[in-house]
Amino acid sequence: MVTRKLLAWGGLLVGLGVAATGREALATCPSPAVITNPRWPGEDAWLAIQRAGLRYGAIHVEVDNVYDLANPREDIWYTRTADFLHIRTRDWVVDHLLLIRPGQPVDAQQVYEAIRHLRGQTFLRGADITPVSCSDGVVNVQVDVRDAWTLKLDTRFARAGNANQWRFKLEDSNFLGTGRTLAVGRQKTLERSMNVLEYLDPTLANSDWTMAAYYEQLSDGKFESLTLSKPFLLDTTPWGADVMALDQHLNLGFYNRGVQAWYMPQRGQQFQADWQKRLYFNGETALRAGVAMDYEHYTYGAPVLVSAGELPPPAAYPRTLAGIGPIVSLHQDRYASFENLREVARAEDYNLGWDVSAQVLYDSTAWGATSNGPNVSVTASRGFEPRPEWVVLADGSLMARRDGGSWRNEAFNAEATAYGQPWQRQTLVFHVDYASLLHPDPENRLYVGGFEALRGYPNFYATGTRRVRVTIADRIVTPMVWFHTFQVGFVVFNDNAIIDRASGQGWSPWYSSVGAGFRIGNLRGSFNRVLYFTVAEPLVTDAGVRRKPQVVVGDVLTF
After folding, report:
1. Where are the domains of the chain?
2. pLDDT tens digits, one per residue of 388-443
3. DSSP conformational letter for 449
4. Do residues 559 and 342 touch, judged by C-beta distance below 8 A?
5. How far apart are CA 232 and CA 202, in angstroms?
6. Angle between the 108-119 and 43-51 helix axes, to the nearest 10 degrees?
7. What tens digit of pLDDT does each residue of 19-50 get?
8. What DSSP designation does 49 have?
9. C-alpha dihedral (17, 18, 24, 29), degrees to nearest 10
């Protein structure tokens, strides 16, 4: 903030003729290019600098604290206390995460990639990269990042379908200002309670590798995982890789009408790895290919009856998957910046191009697999703007494997969400998704109810093989901000779902609920960015469901 003010004063002095040297330096910067539909703020200026053939000169990094105490309205005892307690992100962390370097030719798209990379860090609530001055063929750059409040006694609470989820965890997603996450605590989900230990590192050993390590002591077992990743940070990054190992022991729950009918002990071990190389890039579209391998081993105990009902006992058999094969991906960089779509008062970057990935592994008994056969996985996403003030984000996936002479775990998912902002501070949302799951592995189930985008109904209300869900919502963001931290909004919504139920019962009726309440945006923190405090009421009754308002609280939606 201080640097921005100094720059503003400098601009004023230039206008008054006091700083002739600064005026001459700034005057050498090319005039912003004319762009019909700029994708992000600053694109026009950076395109003009790129076309002039300039290189990056001095890069100055400024880390703003959580609150702007230079603003008299924010200079209050609790904001001063928060800024005093908060350890700012170290400059060297930002320098390492920054994807541009002095001496490199200016590339406007690369600048936007660098901005997106910074915004994607959980410990930052915003980032901008702006040109300051141009001279002698170089442009001096200002990198301004805004810290989020990251130290938290996380007492997250969510309620839907007459059930609670809660978390009591001490977590810092910017431990000592290093950008690393360290967390310890206790949590309860719909199915189990757990003690949690987490460590995440976005710059492992000051490299381009990232690491995520989790240990969870579960009420019914344990969960351990370690992931190492070298992502494609830039479109021009030559290669990327991922390695993941997981070991878990827990009870799989099987539900119907919101009640647990069975549980079955499961032990699972996984090791997955892939490596990809950039084969082609034309300035917007990148084609990558490589090799992937997968090892998975699962064993199960006998199913245990919890409550008698119409749900038959789950079937499972020990299996081992061990395969290797090619992976191919296509990435179109057509990102654009938006605001108030999924979050509140934050820059949101979404790709309006294609992202497609496909891999075909061949499981072989020679490598330890239970049987021979292909294992196929395809994912795709696409965004587009059908008309001004509207954006649609869509994605889908398909997976299946040949096991014992037949196809198993055939899963297909497709969803699309349209966001319309024809009026200021108001966002209309239309969401639809379809899922089908045939011959599933016991870990995978389709449900509707509660947290599964059917607020007002019990969680795990109905299960089946095919599902359709539709949500319509009107989200309003008001100018009201509480404690300079929470921006107040309102929401009204209508959730709908239908499912092809198990045991040959056919399609369920269309379940539907309506609701309204508060939608609160956390402007300063890295946690719980959007919280709901609403009431939902079922419109269609069925077994175990009455037309009675239900309280829905927490970060309950991802769209």
Report:
1. 2-147, 231-444
2. 899 999 999 999 999 988 999 999 999 999 999 999 899 999 999 999 999 999 99
3. B
4. yes
5. 13
6. 140
7. 233 333 444 788 887 888 889 999 999 999 99
8. H
9. -80
Write the burial class of residue 90 (CB in 10 Å: 0-12 exposed, 13-18 middle, 19+ buried).
middle
Residues 6+ apart with CB under 8 A from 495: 453, 454, 455, 456, 469, 470, 471, 512, 513, 514, 515, 536
- A 10 A CB-CB count for 517 gives 18
CA atoms within 13 A on the CB side of 423: 8
- pLDDT of 188: 72
Instruction: Give the Cα separation of 244 and 239 in Å (integer).
Output: 17
When pLDDT is cut at 50, 70 and 90, the band that residue 173 belongs to is confident
pLDDT cut 90: percent of the chain above it: 65
- Tell whether the model's pLDDT for residue 361 goes beyond 70: yes
- One-letter identity of residue 320: T
How far apart are the C-alpha atoms of 510 and 472, rounded to whole Å? 15
- 278: tokens are 């950039």
What is residue 14's predicted lDDT score, i.e. its pLDDT?
A: 28
Query: Which of 524, 526, 532 is closest to 559 using CA atoms?
Result: 532
Alpha helix segments (H runs only) across 60-157: 77-85, 91-97, 108-119
How far is Cα 91 from Cα 83, in angstroms, rounded to an integer?
17
pTM score over 0.70 = yes
